[in-house]
Amino acid sequence: KQLEEGSASVDRKAPLRCRSCMETREVCNGLCWGFWKSQQVHPSAAEGATVEPLVPIQVGDCVEPGPHWNALRYGSTTTINDGGEARPRRGKVVEQKPWGAGATELDCVVVEWDDDPRKKPQPYRWGFVGGNGCRLYDLQKVEL
């Protein structure tokens, strides 16, 4: 609407974002692009820093959008049920794999969403170590 009215402005100090994961440089270290042919070592691991362990998850677990859900990349965290009420999106983990090419840690989960009529599985970060050294979880496990 602001573009149509001519009142939109550009924030010249806005943080640069990764074209793949849409995160800022503080979070994304470029490993999300997945084009490296060899295993990449996260800078914090190379310096001998301790990285917290992955939160356990397995195929078949139920998940919903979590603490690092990126609405720019993934869209809304909610869906509309048959009664017209909004509720968190829910899905099932169908695969675990490494987030980056050449990596060995299973820090990515592939989810099939309940509200997706195409049933097309989508990958999400599950404990990927970001550029700031913290684990990123796009999803959270839901106990039914």
Structure notes:
This protein has one domain: SH3 type barrels. The protein is built from three helices and eight strands. A six-stranded antiparallel β-sheet has the order 7-6-5-4-1-8, with no helix packed on it. The protein has a two-stranded antiparallel sheet with strand order 2-3. A hairpin with a 5-residue loop joins strand 2 and strand 3. The relative contact order is 0.22. About 5% of the residues have low confidence.
Characteristics:
144 residues, mainly beta, 6-stranded antiparallel beta sheet, two-stranded antiparallel ribbon, 8 strands, 8% helix
Q: Calculate Rg over CA atoms.
A: 17 Å
CATH topology: SH3 type barrels
How big a fraction of the residues is strand?
Answer: 25-35%
What is the count of β-strands? 8
Ends: how far apart? 41 Å
State the CATH class: Mainly Beta
The order of strands across the largest sheet is 7-6-5-4-1-8
Biggest sheet, in brief? 6 strands, antiparallel
Structural classification? mainly beta
Total tally of structural domains: 1
Secondary structure tally, helices = 3
Instruction: Give the rounded overall mean pLDDT.
Output: 81
- Helix coverage percent: under 10%
Catalogue the unreliable spans: 34-40
Dominant shape: flat
Q: From the coordinates shown, what is the CATH architecture?
A: Roll
Order of helices and strands: HHEHEEEEEEE
